[in-house]
Design goal:
Elements: H1 3-35, H2 39-77, H3 83-106, H4 108-115, H5 126-139, H6 142-158, H7 163-167, H8 169-187, H9 202-221, H10 223-229, H11 243-278, H12 284-318, H13 322-359, H14 365-369, H15 372-397, H16 401-422, H17 431-458, H18 463-490, H19 500-524, H20 528-543
Length: 544
């Protein structure tokens, strides 16, 4: 795949992601308006996130990290273009996910016992515990459909159809928005009132839980027409004694261990976060929705680029062209950082305004203010996460899943250690920010370790070019932060706890000032990674 095709594929995925994230933001804003960011919001947020966490624990690693390299090889080498192999994997996965989903619904209380703070077991929280158990049972069928969505999406990716998987979540978000609008019409917004601390009733649980699951079902069903259009026809195959399938599963052992370690760390995060809201502070809703905002540039830029180059990296690895693999990872990393770093440094400056615009609706200015410290800390965390993410794509292309597991041990161990040291020692309102400090620390370790090891493995990642890029970009970003901060100070009279309008105006003006400085400074200091992207966009706009 040529560089132009990579950029074209990335553009298609990025466009889908932009629409998906926009609809996702509307969903998040409605959710906070409906349920708040205290314990009521956490009841739904944890119950609705648990299926995805469990899916990732059980199957996500194999589907995401191992399946694509295997499919690329089978498409190249098999006379049928890998169709028989894909059919076996889909059949086996459907049987596994279906069985696991039934068991999870039956044992939902025991599952929740792993993720919830022990305060939920106290008598004064009995109604809250009952509410989250009921919500979780409505949501757990999502495990099956999450798995099938990712599996079919990876089959499409391996066939060069990158767009549908990025666009499909829009269907889920639209259904979720309809569900939350219905909730608001029937029960009204919770705002900053005392209802934020009350459990949900049965009718609310059914609407929220069932509505969320229907959204994931729709997200999966959207992919099926594209799968048929790609020329793939699914027929169940139960001949699982395939040498390559066994190879996939053997490679997947280390990936499963990787995911187990990651999810064990996240279990600690959720448990600590649930304790924050039980004690009246910040918790999982603040942490997860702030993470969602941080992931915008990651999803639009990093994932799009990484997904587009992964088949190319797998081909380089298969052909033994490790130098080309390292060069591709290095150049793509710089392209990603050129877009990610401005967001990472400007988010702390405009965090209060972003929170006000995103979550200050329906009289929820106080609720929105609780997001600001967490958002601010997620900004710099994004830079380390981006480096780590790209390095792992290189290892996965070479099928070095064992090494990735040991790297993740360091990442997850750091996360758990820092979180368990910081959170209990701080007041409940600082629970979510302290969890972000742990997140930042863990990916700083991960970025350093994975970069050094991949560079040593492939013989280079264009490190001199990266260092020159970072040196010039640091000067540009320092000026951008100064410009954005100056605008924030000039407009400070608009209020310390902004609502949506003030957040949009002040935050937008500050961010725009910073971005203009980035563009001008990059041109002045000849930061090619930025200027090239700007020139490409400008040329396309002129042609359009």
């Amino acid at each position: 795949m040529s560089d132009q095709r990579i950029l074209a594929s990335s553009a298609v995925m990025a466009a889908g992601t932009v629409f998906s994230r926009a609809s996702g933001f509307i969903r998040s804003a409605l959710l906070v308006a409906a349920l708040g960011a205290a314990i009521r919001g956490d009841l739904f947020s944890i119950a609705n996130t648990l299926p995805n966490m469990v899916y990732i624990l059980l199957a996500g690693g194999i589907f995401n990290a191992v399946l694509v390299p295997q499919l690329v090889r089978r498409i190249k080498e098999d006379p049928d273009g890998g169709d028989a192999y894909a059919r076996r994997v889909i059949t086996l996965s459907a049987l596994f996910l279906g069985t696991v989903t039934v068991l999870l619904v039956a044992f939902a209380p025991a599952l929740l016992g792993l993720y919830l703070d022990d305060r939920y077991l106290e008598p004064d929280r009995a109604a809250h515990l009952e509410s989250i158990v009921d919500l979780t049972r409505w949501c757990l069928p999502q495990v099956f459909f999450y798995g099938m969505y990712v599996l079919i999406g990876q089959v499409l990716n391996a066939r060069g159809r990158f767009g549908p998987m990025m666009w499909a979540p829009i269907a889920n978000n639209l259904l979720s928005i309809a569900m939350l609008v219905t909730y608001l019409l029937v029960w009204g917004p919770v705002g900053d009132g005392p209802e934020r601390y009350e459990p949900l009733d049965t009718s609310q649980e059914v609407l929220l839980g069932l509505g969320s699951t229907v959204g994931i079902v729709a997200q999966f069903l959207v992919l099926l027409p594209y799968l048929r259009a790609s020329g793939f026809v699914y027929r169940p195959r139960f001949d699982f004694r395939d040498p390559e399938l066994r190879k996939t599963l053997s490679l997947g052992i280390w990936t499963v261990l990787f995911v187990v370690v990651t999810q064990a760390a996240y279990l600690v995060v959720v448990k600590l976060a649930s304790g924050g809201t039980v004690d009246g502070g910040t918790g999982y809703t603040v942490y997860a929705n702030s993470l969602l905002i941080m992931m915008v540039p990651h999803s639009i830029v990093t994932v799009s680029l990484a997904t587009a180059i992964l088949p190319r990296l797998s081909s380089f690895a298969h052909e033994g062209r490790l130098g080309d693999l390292g060069s591709t990872v290095g150049s793509t990393l710089r392209t990603s950082l050129a877009l990610v770093l401005p967001f990472a440094v400007l988010l702390p400056v405009v965090a209060g305004d972003v929170a006000g615009f995103a979550f200050g609706w329906a009289g929820g200015e106080d609720t929105a203010a609780s997001f600001a410290p967490t958002l601010a800390l997620f900004g710099p965390a994004l830079a380390f996460f981006t480096v780590h993410y790209f390095m792992l794509r290189g290892f996965y292309a070479m099928e070095m899943t064992r090494l990735v597991f040991f790297i993740q041990l360091a990442v997850s161990g750091t996360n758990v250690l820092v979180a368990t040291l910081l959170v209990p020692s701080r007041p409940p309102e600082e629970t979510a920010p302290m969890l972000v400090v742990a997140y930042l620390s863990s990916y700083a370790v991960g970025a350093l370790v994975s970069f050094v090891l991949l560079r040593r493995t492939v013989g280079g990642l264009e490190t001199p070019q990266l260092l020159r890029f970072l040196a010039r970009m640091s000067l540009v970003l320092a000026a951008a932060v100064a410009a954005a901060w100056s605008v924030e100070l000039a407009l400070a009279g608009l209020g310390e706890r902004p609502g949506p309008l003030v957040g949009l105006v002040r935050g937008g003006a500050s961010a725009l000032a910073g971005l203009l400085v980035v563009l001008g400074g990059a041109r002045l200091l000849r930061v090619r990674e930025v200027t090239t992207l700007v020139d490409i966009v400008a040329a396309r706009l002129r042609r359009g």
